[in-house]
Automatic annotation (TrEMBL):
It comes from Leptosia nina. GO terms for molecular function: metal ion binding. This is NIF3-like protein 1. InterPro entries: DUF34/NIF3, DUF34/NIF3_sf. Belongs to the GTP cyclohydrolase I type 2/NIF3 family. A divalent metal cation binds at H69, D107, H229, E233. Keywords: Metal-binding. GO terms for cellular component: mitochondrion. The keyword Metal-binding applies.
């Protein structure tokens, strides 16, 4: 395995999902760059950057971490050992590990996180719920299916693509589990309530929604599947690892974190 320059990785990331696709409130792009640069031989992909994941990257000898969620969001007033996010920053700079976060740029881009979720369904047509200037990009996805499927089938498909044993389901009013009543699906990876609100569909799919948003949808006859926030996103990393390694001509090894997991589990 040879190596590439940091700028080569940044160019490949920007080619896949330009930073301009990010929401204005987001904090995306290169977040940490060590004073003394290193060529990149190993990259670790993670959905959330915890201390365990940062240590995992160091143990694997990674020179770079790509964290889907930006671990640096609110401004840091210090970098000390008393707070976990500051400890991560301190560790990465000491170990000369670069950090990049794509977040909402990966949500909006064609072929990104939301389109990975779309692939769970037999789709006739898929469009962003809130399109950008390029209508192929934007927030969320509204699907028209090739054929009607049941809620039971939809749940099975979501479990398969996410690798989850359990999801949470709110059955829409007057809907039946095994009837092929799902013709349209509105989905948004992560926390999708604000994106899905008032969208007409038979099924909403997202990571998390507030109780009253779920209640409102269900009472309006819309079924809701919730996976937990990051479980609606994490599975995309496996696909992206292959893409990035190919884009970098196999000159780097792209790993997916084994320590990264949603903080919530069903017990």
């Amino acid at each position: 395995m040879s190596s590439v320059k940091l700028n080569d990785v940044l160019s490949a990331l920007e080619k896949f999902a330009p930073k301009s696709l990010s929401e204005t409130w987001d904090n995306t792009g290169l977040l940490l760059e060590p004073y003394t640069p290193r060529d990149i031989k190993k990259i670790l992909l993670t959905n959330d950057l915890t201390e365990d994941v940062a240590l995992e990257a160091d143990n694997h000898g990674c020179e770079m971490i790509i964290s889907y969620h930006p671990p640096i969001f609110a401004p840091l007033k210090s970098v000390k050992q008393s707070a976990w996010k500051e400890r991560i920053v301190s560790l990465l700079l000491e170990k000369r590990i670069s950090l990049y976060s794509p977040h909402t740029s990966w949500d909006c881009v064609k072929g990104g996180v939301n389109d990975w979720l779309v692939s769970a369904f037999p789709v006739l047509e898929s469009n962003p719920i809130t399109p950008r200037e390029d209508p192929n990009t934007g927030v969320g996805r509204l699907l028209r299916l090739e054929k009607g499927i049941s809620i039971t089938d939809a749940v099975t498909r979501v479990k398969k693509i996410t690798g989850l044993q359990y999801v949470r389901l709110a059955l829409g009013k007057n809907k039946v589990m095994d009837e092929n009543s799902v013709q349209t699906v509105a989905l948004c990876a992560g926390s999708g309530a604000s994106v899905l609100k008032n969208v007409t569909a038979d099924l909403y799919l997202t990571g998390e929604m507030l109780h009253h948003d779920v209640l409102d949808a269900a009472q309006n006859g819309i079924s809701v599947i919730l996976t937990n926030h990051s479980d609606s996103e994490r599975g995309f990393l496996k696909e992206f690892s292959t893409y990035l390694q190919n884009q970098l001509h196999n000159n780097v090894e792209v790993l997916v974190s084994a320590r990264d997991k949603d903080p919530l589990t069903t017990v």
